[in-house]
Amino acid sequence: MYRCASIATLAVAACLAWAPAHAQSHRPFPPQALRGELQLLQFPEATLNGQPARLAPGARLRGDTNLLLQPASVMGQKLMVHYTVEQRTGLLQDIWVLNPVELANKTWPRSAEEAARWSFEPGTQTWTKR
Q: Is residue 92 part of a domain?
């Protein structure tokens, strides 16, 4: 019994040590991810860049440590995010709240038109204006 308890304690300590370090790095975002300011209202309603938006059924909201968040936990807050949109419905599908390292990467498209004119480097997670 004692051995199991100490293994569990080590596992919890390892997870806690990993989370802050991971929060300060770039996560891999898909090339179709756009940047914007999101404010969640009464679920599934939201505003994105000041315009009405809606979360898709099954939308995933990840915090700056990449853990899943419940929309109600950040309701009313203005968040800088990367997001993807369902092509068929136009609803918000995947949302990542940005951490300070990701926010420091200022060059990121805010519209599909900008993304179409820029080049994306997945390895470095950077965009270049053509």
A: yes
